[in-house]
Structure formats: structure tokens, C-alpha cells
Design a protein that fits this description.
Blueprint: H1 15-21, H2 24-27, H3 31-47, H4 53-71, H5 84-96, H6 109-145, E1 150-155, E2 158-164, H7 165-190, E3 192-193, H8 209-215, E4 220-221, H9 225-230, H10 233-259, E5 267-268, H11 287-310, H12 325-345, E6 350-351, H13 353-360, H14 367-376, H15 381-398, H16 407-411, H17 421-424, H18 427-433, H19 442-456
Parallel strand pairs: 3-4
Antiparallel strand pairs: 1-2, 5-6
């Protein structure tokens, strides 16, 4: 088949080169955006008199017919036509004749692909925001259900202080909210029209870029034609945001893996979201959570891949940039799949609230409350910390709990102790006392839920 750019060449393109340079095997998924951009471009060409209105209408009708053929599975994508742009343009010329060749007036594949990617990413960002918010709502509902469930809070994966399970889960809602805000902010830089930049230098034809931007609902047009065709910052920024999202999901997945072990026994995964062993009949494996954790490497790899591709490219467009699509598409699919499966899995998780409560009281988790008790009695925090540390050491060596100590034993460390210390040693009282803004007290967590539900939306 004759190439659309064959005028300059004497020899036919090698079959191995067609295979090596072709991108239709993956960029075919941009067809909808390619046609959408082409229709807007054709309308502009007709409006500006660069082609006649009749020619513009004929091109648009042909593109609409191609849309129908693709949607009904009748369109054949041809590898020898390299990419989605040339597949559609070739089909258009075959369908309506030489008029189809006028569509490419005042544009290049360089600004065309930049447009397609921006339209694609804009759509996907909006879809991912919906999925993130949906997961946030699920987590909020679980927080409400377990509003006053006690659990141990951790630092260094060591039991630290008692907290509410709702407070712990809300930490992930906060992370996801930052993800939403980053995605929304990224849209500002995605939503600029590159079309009209052509190959590198713009065009001498009287195009109306603002009109095309309005048709395609862009906020404005790119300001430098060289930058517009060589820019992939908007892809990199999306991949960076995706890497942060998957990092948050991976941290949550890691806790699901830990909490479902016999060692923790904090929760049980729903059978529908776990798998068994081919040899050990008793096993219930957290494969879904493990795969979310594992797929993080794919998203990180996509980000690093594109950063590496772009780091040494001279201006403006280079064919290296064709390699941006597979990492982008894979990241979009991975993020959407992980958000969907986590959202579907969470409502079926059964939390072992009794076990959580029991462990919240263990491992001297109210030691900080003892130190703060002494601070309220007038000691400096450093002195109170030292005394409390000695009390804990005494308990460790004597295999005692803080609540087992008599007032006489406590007086060996400080005469400031009185009977009111014992209420401070209960996990419930410790949580209740954490009334600082953003703290784990029931009152503060309730405030957090009310605030987040306003931000995220209803149930």
C-alpha cells in the first residue's frame, strides 16, 4: 500500500521497518480522540475558507461513518499504515476521494498526537477522580460503622498508642483527597490545545486555534509551537500523580496483608476476594491486596520509562516519543483496576473488633498518657518521659502491666501519682483524651468524618 508520505522516497519501506516502527497495535485505542480532533479541525478549515464548507461537511460525514465502522467492529486497522492517524486518514481518502486528503491541511502528526493524548488523558483523569471518590465514600462508610472501635496505633510497626479504627481508615481518605486535588490541578496543564502548532513552526494558513479550542472544550491554546509538539510534561505529571495514588493503595494493601495474618488477626478478607493454595487446603491468601502492592512497580516503571525517554531529546518532536503510549495506557488501566477491586473488596472485610480492642491495651500503649499525667502535675515533659520509661522497664522486668502497679510502687518513681492515674491507663480513656484538632478522640474523628463527607460527597 502506498504511504501517505511516499512522495520523497524511491524505495518501499521494509516490512521489518513497518513492524518495528508501527504503533497501531496499541495507539488504536486513541481512535475516538483522533476523530473528535479531526472533526473539529475540519470545521475550522471550512469556517476559515481554507477548504470549502462543502468539503468540510463531506470530510465530517466520512469521519462519522468511520466512527460507526469502528464501533461496530467492521473497521480493519492496518499495520502497514503505521499509526491511528494514517489508518483513519487513509480510510477517509478511500471513502470520499481526494477531498479526504485536505483534512491534513494546517496540521502534522506531531500536533495531532499531542492533541489525541491530551484528550485521552483529560477523559481518563476525570474517570479516575470518580473512582477515587467512590473509594473514599466506601472508606468513609466503614469509618462510620466502626466509629468507636479501638485498635493499637503503630509507629515502626510497633504498638504505640491506642487509636480508633475509624481514625486509622480516615488517614487513607485524606491521602486519596490529596490525590484528587493533584489530578484536578493537573487538568489545568492538560487542557490546552496543541493543534495548529503543526510539525514545529506553526502554519502560514489562516487557522483559528481559539475556535478549535472552544469546540474541543480546551481552556486555551499552547503558546509555543516548538514546545507544544515536543511536550510530554502533561503525561509525566499524570504518571507521577498515578505513582502517588498507587503508593497510597499499596500502603493500604500492605496493612490488609498484615492484618489478615494469624499473627495480627485484626480482620478477615471476604472469600470472593481471596484465593487458596494448590497444596495447602487451609490457606486463605490475600492475593488481591498483594497484587495491588505488586502492581505499584509497574506504575513506577512507567513513570521512570517516560522520564528516561524524554531526558535527552533535542527539540522538537522525535520518534522516541512514540514510546510514551504503552506506559501511559498501562498505567491508566492499572490504576483503574486497582481502585475498582479495592472498592469492591472493602465492604466485605470483617474486622475482629474484640482482638483489636484487646491489643490496644497491651504493650504499654498508655505510657505516653502516664508521661502527660505527670506533665499536668507540673513536671517538664523530659523529666516525665524519663520517669515513665523507668516505670515501663520495671514492668517489663517484673512481667507486669501498667495497670497492675500499686500506688505504693508508683510512688517509688514519683510522689506526684495519686489514684486518678488509673483512669489514664485504660485505652478508652487514652483515646477519649486525644482531643487536639485532628486527634483520635471520638469527638475529633466525628468532626473529620463530617468534613470529609462534605468534601467527597454523599453516601
Amino acid at each position: 500500500m502506498k504511504k501517505l508520505w511516499s512522495g520523497r522516497f524511491k524505495e518501499k519501506t521494509s516490512k521489518i521497518v513497518e513492524y518495528f516502527t508501527g504503533s497501531i497495535s496499541f495507539d488504536h485505542r486513541l481512535w475516538k480522540y483522533d476523530i473528535k480532533g479531526s472533526i473539529a479541525h475540519a470545521k475550522m478549515l471550512g469556517k476559515q475558507g481554507i477548504i470549502t464548507l462543502e468539503e468540510s461537511k463531506k470530510i465530517i460525514k466520512g469521519l462519522e461513518e468511520i466512527t460507526n465502522e469502528i464501533e461496530t467492529g467492521r473497521f480493519v486497522f492496518r499495520e502497514e499504515l503505521e499509526d491511528i492517524h494514517m489508518n483513519i486518514e487513509s480510510a477517509l481518502i478511500k471513502k470520499i476521494g481526494d477531498t479526504g486528503g485536505k483534512l491534513h491541511t494546517a496540521r502534522s502528526r506531531n500536533d495531532q498526537i499531542a492533541l489525541d493524548l491530551r484528550l485521552f488523558i483529560r477523559t481518563e483523569i476525570k474517570g479516575i477522580i470518580v473512582l477515587v471518590k467512590k473509594f473514599q465514600k466506601t472508606l468513609l462508610n466503614i469509618s462510620i460503622k466502626h466509629l468507636d472501635t479501638l485498635m493499637p496505633g503503630y509507629t515502626h510497626l510497633q504498638r504505640a498508642q491506642p487509636v480508633l479504627l475509624s481514625h486509622h481508615i480516615l488517614a487513607y481518605v485524606e491521602m486519596l483527597q490529596r490525590d484528587v486535588e493533584r489530578l484536578k490541578d493537573a487538568l489545568k496543564r492538560v487542557n490546552l490545545l496543541p493543534l495548529g502548532s503543526c510539525a514545529v513552526a506553526g502554519t502560514s494558513l489562516p487557522v483559528d486555534r481559539a475556535y478549535v479550542a472552544k469546540l474541543l472544550e480546551f481552556d486555551g491554546v499552547s503558546q509555543n509551537s516548538i514546545d507544544a509538539v515536543s511536550d510530554r510534561d502533561f503525561v509525566i505529571e499524570f504518571l507521577s500523580n498515578a505513582a502517588i495514588i498507587i503508593m497510597h493503595l499499596s500502603r493500604l494493601a500492605e496493612e490488609l496483608v498484615l492484618w489478615s495474618t494469624e499473627e495480627f488477626k485484626f480482620m478477615e478478607l471476604p472469600d470472593a476476594f481471596a484465593t487458596g493454595s494448590s497444596i495447602m487446603p487451609q490457606k486463605k491468601n490475600p492475593d488481591v491486596a498483594e497484587l495491588v502492592r505488586g502492581k505499584t512497580g509497574r506504575v513506577y516503571g512507567s513513570l521512570l520509562s517516560l522520564l528516561t525517554i524524554m531526558k535527552g531529546l533535542p527539540l522538537s518532536y522525535n520518534r522516541d516519543m512514540q514510546e510514551d503510549k504503552i506506559p501511559l495506557f498501562d498505567t491508566v488501566d492499572t490504576i483503574k483496576a486497582c481502585l475498582t477491586v479495592m472498592n469492591e473488596m472493602f465492604p466485605g472485610i470483617k474486622f475482629n473488633t474484640k482482638r483489636m480492642h484487646e491489643t490496644a491495651d497491651e504493650a504499654y500503649s498508655t505510657a505516653t498518657d502516664v508521661a502527660e499525667y505527670l506533665v499536668k502535675k507540673g513536671l517538664s515533659f523530659r523529666k516525665a518521659h524519663e520517669i515513665t520509661g523507668k516505670i515501663v522497664l520495671y514492668c517489663v522486668e517484673g512481667k507486669k502491666k501498667l495497670g497492675d502497679l500499686t500506688l505504693k510502687e508508683l510512688h517509688n518513681f514519683s510522689g506526684l501519682f495519686s489514684n486518678d492515674i488509673y483512669s489514664c491507663l485504660k485505652a478508652e480513656e487514652s483515646v477519649k483524651s486525644r482531643r487536639s484538632p485532628g486527634g483520635t478522640s471520638l469527638k475529633e474523628v466525628t468532626k473529620q468524618i463530617i468534613r470529609l463527607r462534605k468534601i467527597v460527597g454523599g453516601r
